[in-house]
Write a sequence for this structure.
């Protein structure tokens, strides 16, 4: 089938997104377009490019900033800022990853949505990236007077100075680079402040010419807007372009024959002698969605809860202040796992490393408790079925998920059709557990001491007000979510749901209830604090879009029972 210069490659109805997904290829340029048509009024568009860096000058990051500083069709100084002020957008931003750059927008208003698309496509294809823009967004030298002192300035340069001033950020970057010594992941696409001043205008301009071409682009649409108009808009924007080869493939990292140990200094207060340690493993390709799902469950088993064996061993050891490491990383072509401790005395670094390996060896030898496996299976399945993207559009989450395979020339629908993988989980449950969890049993699970799912209703209308979920493993309770529809917020519904779980925990002699929340969600933190939850730890870079830590809040019941 051909429409508006596009040829249909594949079509599939996805129950998971309640809509039809079609993958198209642009005849003239070879650009791919993934179109998801469903009933979501919050329409989402994105264009992404593979942008593999060849150094750590931050050219991809600087270019992400620069293309939004005016284009041929919109020659204003800062169209991005003007759109933030004047459009009806529900999301407007851009992201630089180690191997890709994404430009997503979203709006519930159709006319506004089309305008956002037009501005963004012209921005990435025809930016006015002058040398002055590079100086502004990248780097330049300035001084208060001709006599100095001279110093480097620039939007991205200053941003990355802040990043590199954080020991946790340096540790995360160095951990990744150590696992990928032979690929582009050994470089910092965001920019190392020591290398950013090496970026020339010629290299800056060449990077855009090389990778910001439709033949290297992946367009994404989501929502209830007409699909034919999507194809027409993109086709009109790409007139004058022809297909050309773009060498942007992301290579695989060969596995190392022996472990590597790397020591990197970081800026610390005078006299401070504390180390940050991670142990990191290179895993399989993200495109293997089955393995990715199993790795998510394994991560939950190892460190998902305060009582998880690896997390518990690290905290109880007293060797460090808190756990660190990103956990399971799934944004790259190859997944990896990172865990460790921070605030470790230099003399205890080796002991902390041995503790990690000894704990994993013990789990391998003795096996993982069945209750922990069941809790992980249920938790991951619940998260997938809930498909909660927080305050960010669902379409944006779907776009990022599709890119985990699509960017590497895999099937973009595989991560979205997670029902197939969940079916395999259900089969795993049937094989391992006598009482597998599924949708048909949700009503029964309200009385099951392993899981509880509550729905709050309006007494007058019977309409659903909100819901909450609780998973139980042994004497540990994990609150998966507490959600209330906007019209019913600040009326006590969330508090009543929490109160039910607190009474449930006491009646069933749970040691604690725990949950995770974004540090930026002040309203939720205030609610949980009011109900006796206290901060018990922090999971680094746990959330995506945007990347953010997770606060682990816990309410214990040990003292109450004495």
């Amino acid at each position: 089938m051909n429409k508006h210069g596009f040829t249909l490659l594949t079509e599939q109805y996805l129950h998971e997104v309640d809509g039809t997904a079609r993958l198209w290829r642009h005849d003239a340029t070879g650009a791919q377009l993934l179109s998801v048509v469903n009933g979501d009024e919050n329409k989402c568009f994105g264009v992404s490019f593979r942008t593999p860096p060849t150094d750590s000058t931050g050219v991809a990051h600087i270019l992400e900033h620069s293309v939004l500083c005016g284009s041929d069709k919109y020659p204003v100084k800062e169209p991005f800022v003007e759109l933030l002020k004047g459009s009806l957008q529900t999301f407007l931003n851009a992201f630089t990853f180690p191997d890709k750059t994404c430009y997503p927008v979203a709006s519930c208003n159709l006319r506004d949505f089309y305008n956002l698309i037009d501005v963004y496509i012209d921005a990435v294809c025809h930016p006015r990236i002058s040398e002055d823009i590079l100086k502004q967004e990248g780097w330049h030298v300035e001084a208060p007077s001709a006599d100095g002192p001279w110093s480097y300035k620039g939007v991205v340069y200053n941003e990355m100075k802040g990043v590199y001033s954080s020991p946790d950020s340096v540790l995360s970057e160095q951990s990744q680079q150590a696992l990928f010594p032979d690929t582009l992941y050994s470089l910092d696409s965001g920019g190392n402040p020591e290398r950013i001043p090496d970026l020339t205008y010629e290299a800056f301009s060449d990077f855009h010419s090389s990778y910001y071409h439709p033949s290297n682009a992946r367009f994404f649409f989501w929502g209830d807007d007409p699909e034919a108009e999507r194809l027409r808009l993109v086709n009109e924007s790409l007139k004058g372009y022809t297909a050309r080869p773009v060498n942007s493939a992301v290579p695989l990292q060969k596995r190392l024959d022996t472990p590597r140990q790397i020591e990197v200094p970081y800026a610390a207060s005078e006299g401070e002698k504390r180390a940050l340690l991670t142990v990191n493993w290179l895993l399989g390709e993200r495109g293997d969605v089955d393995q990715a799902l199993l790795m998510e469950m394994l991560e939950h088993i190892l460190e998902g809860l305060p009582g998880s064996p690896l997390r518990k061993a690290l905290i109880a050891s007293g060797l460090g202040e808190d756990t660190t490491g990103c956990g399971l990383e799934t944004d790259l072509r190859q997944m990896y796992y990172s865990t460790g401790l921070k605030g470790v005395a230099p003399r205890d670094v080796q002991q902390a490393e041995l503790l990690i390996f000894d704990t994993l060896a013990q789990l391998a030898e003795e096996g993982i408790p069945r209750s922990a496996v069941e809790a992980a299976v249920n938790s991951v399945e619940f998260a997938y079925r809930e498909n909660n993207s927080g305050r960010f559009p669902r379409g944006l989450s779907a776009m990022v998920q599709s890119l985990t395979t699509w960017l590497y020339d895999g099937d973009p629908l595989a991560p979205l059709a997670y029902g197939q993988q969940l079916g395999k989980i259900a089969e795993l449950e049937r094989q391992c557990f006598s009482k597998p969890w599924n949708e048909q049993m949700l009503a029964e699970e309200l009385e099951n001491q392993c899981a509880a799912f509550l729905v709050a209703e309006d007494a007058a209308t019977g309409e659903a007000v909100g819901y909450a979920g609780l998973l139980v493993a042994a004497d540990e309770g994990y609150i998966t979510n507490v959600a209330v529809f906007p019209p019913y917020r600040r009326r006590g519904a969330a508090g009543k749901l929490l109160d039910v779980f607190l009474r449930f925990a006491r009646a069933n002699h749970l040691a604690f209830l725990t949950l995770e929340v974004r540090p930026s969600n002040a309203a939720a933190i205030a609610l949980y604090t009011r109900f006796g939850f206290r901060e018990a730890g922090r999971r680094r870079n746990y959330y995506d879009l945007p990347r953010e830590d997770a606060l682990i809040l816990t309410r214990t019941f040990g003292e109450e029972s004495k």
